[in-house]
Amino acid sequence: MYSRLKIRWCGCPRTSGVLCRYLSSAEISTALRPFYFSVHPDLFGKYPEQRKINENSLQQLSALIEAQQSSRRLSIPPLSFYLRQKNMPEGEFKLVKISLNGNNVRETVVKVLNACDMSTKFVDKIPKTSSKIEISTPDFSKAYQEYAKDFENVTRMKRKVEEKKAINNIVEWIIENSVIAKEKYESTSATRDQVKCLKEHLCNTYGIKEVKYDNGWNISHIRGALQSLVSLATQHSNEMTNLEGRIIALGQFTGVSLDGDVYLNIIDVRNEWLSLIKKVSQEDSALIEIPKYEKALSSILRDIHICRRKFMPKVSAFQYCNHLRQLITSIGDFYGHGSKFPSSVPESLSKYQIVVEPEAGPLMVSPTGQFITPSSCPAGELIAYIGKHLDEATLLMTEYNINKHVEKALYKEVLERFGLLELHKDDSITPGLMILCCQRLLTRSDKLHMKLQGNILYITHYYSVLSEGILCIPWNFK
Questions:
Q1: Quick one: pLDDT at residue 380?
Q2: Residues 261/295, Cβ–Cβ less than 8 Å
C-alpha cells in the first residue's frame, strides 16, 4: 500500500522543518477553471481547426501536470490554444502559445494563466510552504473533471436556448445554404490553385514524394504554411536534400510520424521546421525500434495484435517508442511480482487488437473493437480490463467488419447519386453512424439531388458552411 503513496516536494530544500509543496489537484482545478471555460473543445463545435488544436494541447497539458504531480519529468512542445473572448466577434479567437518546460506544478499553472491574461490571485494566495509533508495519490484526471458539472450546467442552458432556434429540416437548410457554399468554393478557387502550384514546386524542385495536409485546416492557412516552407527551402536548399523521397504533411505536431511522414506543425515557427529537417535521419531511428517494441509488447500480452487507430492522436515515432517502453516496463513489473492473467482469459489473444496511446488517453474498447490504453495505465488494471471486455470487443469487431463494407458501398452511392465533388466525415463518426446518415440522405434524394450537386459535404455533429465552401451537416440531422 505504501509504495503507491508519494511525498510531494516542490524541489526546494528543507528549512526549519518547513517544506515547499505542490498545488493539490483540487487547487489546480479551481485555478484553471477560467482557462478551461475559454478553451474547452465543446465551445468550438463549428470550428474544427481550433477544436482539434485545443483538444491536442489540453491532452498534453493534462499529461504534463500528471507527470509533475508524480515527480516525473515529461518534455512537451510549446502548446497552442485558441481562446474564446467576449469582446471578439463570432468566429474570431485569440491564439496563445505557451512553453512549459519546468517540473513545478505551481509554475505551470501560473504560466498558463499569465499567457491567457487571466488572474493568478487564487494561486498567489496559496502558501508556497507547508509545515507538514503532504501524502496523496495524484489524480489530475479526477481534478480536471471537477469543473465539468459547472461547465455542463452552462452548456445545458446554452443548449436549451439553441434548441429553440435549432434546425429542424435538413432540406430547408441545404436549400438555403447550397448556393452560398458553391459561391464560397468558387471564391477560393485561386487559393486552391496556388496550393496546388506550391505543392508541385516543392515536389519537383526538392524531390519530395508528396505534400499533404490534415483535414480541418482552412485553405488559406495551408497556402500560408506552404509559402513559408517554400521560402525556407529556398534559403536552406542544402538541408532540403534530407527530404528527398519523403512525404511532407502539414498538421498538428512537428516530427516524424509512425508512418515515416515528416510532419510540420502549421502554427510552429520556421526555425522549428528547420531543426527537424536537419535531424530527420535521427528521428528515423525510432521507426526502426518500433517493430521491436511492438513485438515485445505483443509477446507479453499473449500475442495480442499491436496496431494503430486510423484517427489516433498524432504523435512522433520517438514519442510512440517511449509509450511502448513505458507499458512494457509496467507489465514486466506486474509479472515480476507474481501476478498473472485471469484464468478466464484465453491462452492466445491473437484475434484481438490493442492500441497504445499517450499518457492522458482513455482506457476503453473503441467502436471498432480495439482495446485502447494509455501508456501510463497500470498493468494490473489493463489486464483486468481486457479480461472483462473480451466479449464486447468481439461483438464490436464483428459489427465493424460488416459495417465497413456497407459504409463503403453507401459512401459511393451518396457521392454519385447527389453528384458531390467530395464526401468526407469527422474522425468521430463511426461506420455505423455513417451508414445511418447515408441511408437517411438517400431517402431525401428527390428533394436534395439538384441542391447538393457540385458541393462538398462533410458529415459531423453540427451545421455550418466553412469558409472554403464545405457544407457541414450532423450525422443525425432531422
A1: 93
A2: no
Coil, helix or strand for 474? strand
Contact indicator for 227, 200 with CB cutoff of 8 Å: no
Rounded-to-integer distance, Cα 444 and Cα 434, Å: 16
Residue 472 burial (10 A CB sphere; 0-12, 13-18, 19+): buried
pLDDT at position 472 is 92
Q: What is the DSSP letter of 312?
A: P
Read off the C-alpha cell for 474: 450532423
Per-residue pLDDT of 271-311, as tens digits, reads 889 999 999 988 888 888 999 999 999 999 999 999 987 66
DSSP 316: -
**Per-residue cell: 407:** 459504409
Q: Is the dihedral of CA 418, 192, 52, 293 positive or negative?
A: positive
Q: How many CB atoms lie within 10 A of CB 119?
A: 11
Q: Please state the separation of Cα 22 from the chain's center in Å.
A: 28
SS3 365: strand
- 3-class DSSP assignment, residue 374: strand
Among 378, 338, 342, 372, CA closest to 358: 372
pTM of the model: 0.62
